[in-house]
Amino acid sequence: MHLVSFNVFRTLGLPNTTVLKPDQFLQHRQLLQEADWVLFPEYWQLNALVHGLKCRVFPSVASYRIGHDKVEMTRAFQTVAPAHTPWTLIEANGPVERERIWQAMPHPFVAKLPKASMGEGVWLIESRADWQRYCDVTDVLYAQEYLPIDRDARVVVIGDRVLTAYWRTQADQGFYNNVSRGGHIDTSPVPAVMTDLALSLAKELGVDHAGFDIALVDGYPYVLEFNRLFGNKGLVAGRELQDAILGYLRRSSEPSGPREPSDPRPAWPTAV
Asked: Is the pTM here over 0.90, yes or no?
């Protein structure tokens, strides 16, 4: 199996892997077309690689397209798992829409910038002034109910399996659970109801490389978002991550024979 990678740090140590610079990919058309997999391209390369050169990419196209924007991501969650998605309102940023959301949302609530990551662009809205400051810096209004939690779980899905899961507890200044914003890692066991939800979402949406953020409220799991390029804090050893990726690529490369009849819909978790 021959691999081509555009991210040396995420594929370091993978066997039979050629690393290319993203901005030079058109100089290597034949190499890319002959590769079994093209790994971790930049988002802007995706259409040319998949539709132009007919490459098979990892992470999956769905991982890129859905994970690129919180609006698209939330709408996908609302489609396949509405009961596990916090109540969210998404509107164009206009005066009527601003007032409609302000009146509809119980206070406090959460507002997000659609393309932010690593905990950036997440606002706790407690006052009109907070809401105004948020509205002044976004093109799209994204408002979500505030869940009464002091932690969430990061569930890492590689391919068709959960690789690891750990808790992220609230930062010292409160509100943020993201480790990059001061949250803390807790390796206490994560309930299966949370890992089951992440894996069900990944399978239903075709996402094969993601860190899902799952909240638990009175034993009931809610999906907040996922990150296609998740951080490595709290992960198992790097070799285990690479082995999981390589194993999935090999399994996905094997010809598939007739399958036993099964329910095509994943089983969604219930409260514990």
From this structure: no
